[in-house]
Amino acid sequence: MTTIEQLETRIRSLRSCVVAFSGGVDSSLVAAIAARALGESALAVTAVSPALATGELDGARDVAHAIGIRHETITTAELERNGYRANGRDRCYHCKAELYDHLADLAARRRYAAILSGANADDVGDWRPGLTAAAEYDVIHPLLEAGIGKEDVRRLARELGVPSAEKPASPCLASRIPYGTAVDPAVLAQIDRAEVAVKALGYSVLRVRHYGLLGRVELEADELAALTTERRETIVAAVTSAGYSDVEIADEPFRSGSLNASFTKRLVVAS
Fold it and tell me: Cα(12)–Cα(63) distance, rounded to whole angstroms?
């Protein structure tokens, strides 16, 4: 039995499910397999809030259409949770608790048997307080259960023709704010404007980190190496147009999860 067949068998055994669906490669792979295994008994749900970056919802809709799964949206209110706004190291716990609270309610009202996520085996080695929230709502992680890491997720997604197979990670906008700095809707909107402005210049993989008046731009290695003085000036102008008075382009290339680097190595993850 192939890995995809094993995943299909696991999901088919649930009889029906709701997939927490961002449109990224992980949740897209789970949704694609759920659609194959359960057909109309599978539903992909995307959460919409001020923390969702521009373009992500449209992308999720396109992927859902391409893989043939029914798709709906819900509105989440993580900004009403004190723990989320405070932006401690457990911010993602409060975000996921809000998400799963809504999904659990939807599943109960409409009689879906399970909630699925796209968490994969590589997530266990990172700082993922959202997994704690998932456990509280009995969320099932098919990829994690099967020991499938990110590299194999992309391989399987390519095998199934999932459009987001090569999509870079795009976590919520709050991930650009250093821990301890309060999350505010106006700040999220500013970060979003800055990233949209830089992407309009042709840069695809980037983050604009928020440090008060300073916007710190991180680019992937190839694009960083190709920067000229003129290109730097256009990036600075783009970020300034979003409302930052100071702009810095990081010398080090973008690395996902860099804000966790200072303490992740100290964590012990329960099995």
Answer: 21
Domains and CATH numbers, the chain: 3-160 (3.40.50.620), 173-255 (3.30.70)
In angstroms, the CA 231 to CA 257 distance is 26
* Phi and psi angles of residue 7, each rounded to the nearest 5 degrees, phi first: -65, -40
In sequence order, which residues have a C-beta less than 8 Å from that of residue 265 and are 6 or more positions away? none
Q: Are 183 and 85 in contact (CB under 8 A)?
A: yes
Tokens 């995307």, residue located: 46
Mean pLDDT by 10 residues, the chain (271 residues): 97 98 98 98 98 97 98 98 97 97 98 98 84 96 97 98 94 96 98 98 96 97 94 98 98 74 37 27
Q: Cα-flanking dihedrals φ and ψ of residue 234, to 5°? A: -70, -35
Q: What is the distance, to the nearest Å, from the Cα of residue 112 to the centroid of all Cα atoms in its chain?
A: 23
- Non-local (6+) Cβ contacts of 5 within 8 A are none
Overall residue count recorded for the chain in this entry: 271
Give every CB contact of residue 75 below 8 A, 6+ residues apart in sequence.
47, 48, 49
Q: Which residues contact 97 (CB under 8 A, 6 or more apart)?
A: 81, 133, 136, 137
Predicted TM-score (pTM) of this structure = 0.91
Gyration radius of the chain over CA positions: 19
Q: How many C-beta atoms surround the C-beta of residue 73 within 10 A?
A: 15
